[in-house]
Amino acid sequence: MAAMFGDPPMSLPAPSARSRVRRLPDRGRYDRDTIAAILDEGLVAHVAAAGAGEAVVVPMAYGREGDRLYLHGSPASRTLRALAQGAPACATVTLLDGLVLARSAFHSSMNYRSVVVLGRAERLEGDAKLAGLRAVTEHLAPGRWDELRPPTAKELGATAVVAMDLREAAAKVRTGPPHDEPRDLAHPVWAGVVPLRGAVGAPQADSAVPPGTAPSPSVTGWSRPGWERLG
Questions:
Q1: Span between the terminal Cα atoms of the chain, in Å
Q2: How far apart, in whole angstroms, are the C-alpha atoms of residue 231 and residue 141?
Q3: What number is the average pLDDT over the span 14-18?
Q4: Half-sphere exposure of 2 toward its Cβ, with a 13 Å CA cutoff?
Q5: Mean pLDDT, rounded, of the chain
Q6: What is the pLDDT of residue 229?
Q7: Full set of structural domains in the chain with CATH
Q8: CA 144 – CA 136 distance, rounded (Å)
């Protein structure tokens, strides 16, 4: 894997013909650092698998460790069943950084960072399954796994966990202002970028938390790059 993701980032070829960015290829990124950073900042992957019946894209929590993407869900899910059986799959993660408001609808866009992962998933069992669940939990709230009670055998049986290799992963990134046509620059309307970022609110305890119980470090320390903390 290190050879595929080596330096410098912009000199890397696509890992395969099907994962190569074709539309605006200069926005393609294939280095490990860019791909890992986007996956680590995101929270939701949209996943589709061939052979899952009708065309369905399912939002899923996920986690990354090394060059593996972990997904989990109900064994009854058509998508999870197809993934567990090794069907061709695609997982995408997208981060929105801004609205790009141009002087024409055609050139209006968004600044974004996205990753597309292609391949086939592997069903995990035993210790590997537990490690996958830990990766997902730690991705959503770092430090949370060690604060929780261990999962029961019944809970593990009611959860399917799969892993996708990041061998065929590609990122696509747009930054900067609008790219208006020269003839449109005199059009009397504001144009530019409206930055977007997330916000973290104050923790809200459920009714069963004993009075005086403080939020744990995984709660008080929760953050994502660029997100604002409220309250």
A1: 42
A2: 19
A3: 89
A4: 0
A5: 92
A6: 87
A7: 9-179 (2.30.110.10)
A8: 10
